[in-house]
Amino acid sequence: MHPRNRYAQPHDFPALAKVVPGLADHLITTPDGRTSLNFASPVAVRLLNQALLLRDYNLKFWDLPKGNLCPGVPGRLDYIHTLAELLEEDQVGLPPAGLINVPAQGKRKKGAPRITGLDIGTGASLIYPILGVKEYGWNFVATDVSERSLKVATAISKFNPGLGKKVVLRRQSDPSTIFHNVIRPGERFDFTMCNPPFFDSAEAASAAAQLKWEKLGKTNGPSPTLNFGGQANELWTEGGEPAFLRQMSRESVDCASQVGWFTTLVSKKGYLKIAEIEFGRLGITTTRTIRIGQGGKLRRVLCWRK
Ligand code: SAH
Questions:
Q1: 170 CA to middle of ligand 1, Å?
Q2: What sign does the CA torsion over 267, 156, 160, 182 have?
Q3: Residues lining ligand 1, judged by CB closer than 6 Å?
Q4: Which domain holds residue 131?
Q5: What global pTM score does this model have?
Q6: Is residue 268 within 8 Å of residue 275, measured between CB atoms?
Q7: Strand ranges inside 92-182, DSSP E
Q8: pLDDT score at 297
């Protein structure tokens, strides 16, 4: 986990159940006697994330309709802190990133530059804008192709004081494009970010869910639902993550002067090679790969600029 991540210690589940009482129904006792959560249940995971967001980020309201991709808040936070460090390195005269104190929640430090990011595929949860606004006081434009997800994201933004003013939601009306239509003439973003749809078909998404289900020891019968709670359209796109990555690199060249750093999560190491080839073709030479997460959940944040 990123050294700034506030969730480095194991969660205190009984304390969280006081914030969201429904969590109490999903607590389990591990063989060594600790209280933990039934992570196999999508409802339990949604309630855990709700409790973290209400308690630690002072949200008044956060919820998702059944079946929407439920973000793991601690993992998402690693990407936000990684971006913060990347931006800090660009600010000449500042001490190395590790020495900078994390600012007070939601407040931009006096004299600190106003930062605006573009979140591609924000989902119903609005997770990255929430964390970016609350941790660093950033501003966001957040996009998605799903009208249904944007409806929920709009409700979350509207019902939480402080978020509505800092987050603008935009629908990408053409699913085959990423930056076109949403970056407008004259706009400038310090960074773009994206947790891309991984799979190339709904079947591949369900197969992965089934595998995860089996790994959790639920071998008898199919999983009752995608056990990480993802709606099929959130999890897959034509050509999967590699196609999304290629499209993003190609379009980035057209709006290169309007963006400080383009970034995206890359789920598999092999996809970096795809990006490298595409960057070579496009003449993109400034790139960075930053590893985040841990263990089986190791991911990379790929960053580039032109
Ligand atoms: N950011 C959220 C959701 C990631 S899932 C999280 O981290 O939990 C990927 C999202 O990308 C989905 O919500 C999907 O609807 C959206 N998406 C797919 N194609 C897109 C496109 N061309 N432009 C914007 N969003 C897109």
A1: 12
A2: positive
A3: 69, 71, 76, 120-123, 125, 127-128, 143-146, 149, 172, 175, 178, 195, 197, 233-234, 237
A4: 75-305
A5: 0.90
A6: no
A7: 116-120, 139-144, 167-171
A8: 82
